[in-house]
C-alpha cells in the first residue's frame, strides 16, 4: 500500500513523505501524477516517446543547474511523472530499458577497453590509492578490473566534459575505478568497504 504526498507528488510506503516530511498522507487516486524518475534530457526524451507509444499519461519538468538558465540554455535533466493508474507499468518499462541500456553500455566499454588512458598528473595518485608499485601498468590493471567487474554503474554526466562524457564506476571486490564514458580517461580510484 502506498501513500501519496500532494506537495512532492511522490509515492511513499509510510504515512509521511520522505522528502518534505508531511504527515497524514492520503491513498493515491488513479489520476494522481506520481514522480517516477529524474533522468538526463536525452534519455528523458526517448523515454517520453516510449510512454506515448504505450499510451501512458505523463508529465515532465525540466530541472538542473540554474547557471544554464542564466545563459538561456536548456536544463540538463527531466523529472518524469506518470498517472498512478499506470505507475507500475511505467516502472516495469523503465527497468527494462535501463537493464538493456546497462548491458549495451557494458559491451561497449569492454569493446573499447584499448582506449583507456590516464593523465600523468593523476597516475601517481591513482596508483597510490590502489597500492600499485611505481612500475606497475595502471592501464592494464584497470582494464583487468573492467573485464572482470562485479558491477559497472553509470553515475551520470560530467559537467566539465564538453564531449558529453559520463562517470562510469567499476566495482571489483573492494575497489572502485572511475573513468569517462566518452574519452576513456581514468579519473579516480578508491578503496571501498565490502
Describe the structure.
This protein is of the alpha+beta class. It is built from five helices and nine strands; from the N terminus they run βββαβαβαααββββ. A hairpin with an 8-residue loop joins β6 and β7 (166-172). The model has no long low-confidence stretch (mean pLDDT 89).
Number of strands: 9
Count of helical regions: 5
The order of strands across the largest sheet is 6-7-8-9
What is the alpha-carbon Rg in Å?
21 Å
Which percent band covers the strand fraction?
25-35%
Distance between the termini: 33 Å
Q: Structural class, judged by helices and strands? A: alpha+beta
Q: What string, H for helix and E for strand, traces the elements in order?
A: EEEHEHEHHHEEEE
Low-confidence stretches: none
- Largest sheet geometry: 4 strands, antiparallel
Helix content: 25-40%
- Sum up the overall morphology in one term: elongated
Mean pLDDT: 89
Q: Secondary-structure map with pairings?
A:
Blueprint: E1 3-5, E2 10-12, E3 33-40, H1 41-53, E4 58-63, H2 66-70, E5 77-83, H3 87-111, H4 120-129, H5 138-147, E6 151-157, E7 166-172, E8 175-180, E9 186-191
Antiparallel strand pairs: 1-2, 3-5, 4-5, 6-7, 7-8, 8-9
Amino acid at each position: 500500500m502506498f501513500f501519496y504526498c500532494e506537495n512532492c507528488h511522490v509515492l511513499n510506503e509510510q504515512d509521511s513523505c520522505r522528502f518534505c516530511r508531511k504527515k497524514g498522507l492520503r491513498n493515491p487516486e488513479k489520476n494522481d501524477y506520481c514522480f517516477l524518475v529524474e533522468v538526463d534530457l536525452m534519455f528523458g526524451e526517448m523515454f517520453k516517446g516510449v510512454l506515448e507509444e504505450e499510451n501512458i499519461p505523463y508529465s515532465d519538468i525540466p530541472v538542473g543547474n540554474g547557471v544554464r538558465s542564466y545563459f538561456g540554455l536548456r536544463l540538463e535533466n527531466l523529472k518524469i511523472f506518470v498517472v498512478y493508474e499506470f505507475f507500475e507499468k511505467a516502472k516495469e518499462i523503465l527497468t527494462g530499458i535501463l537493464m538493456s541500456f546497462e548491458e549495451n553500455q557494458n559491451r561497449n566499454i569492454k569493446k573499447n577497453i584499448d582506449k583507456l588512458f590516464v593523465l600523468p598528473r593523476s597516475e601517481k595518485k591513482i596508483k597510490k590509492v590502489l597500492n600499485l608499485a611505481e612500475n606497475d601498468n595502471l592501464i592494464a590493471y584497470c582494464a583487468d578490473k573492467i573485464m572482470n567487474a562485479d558491477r559497472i554503474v553509470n553515475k551520470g554526466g560530467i559537467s566539465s566534459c564538453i564531449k558529453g562524457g559520463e562517470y562510469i564506476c567499476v566495482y571489483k571486490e573492494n575497489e572502485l575505478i572511475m573513468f569517462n564514458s566518452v574519452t576513456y580517461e581514468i579519473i579516480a580510484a578508491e578503496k571501498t568497504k565490502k
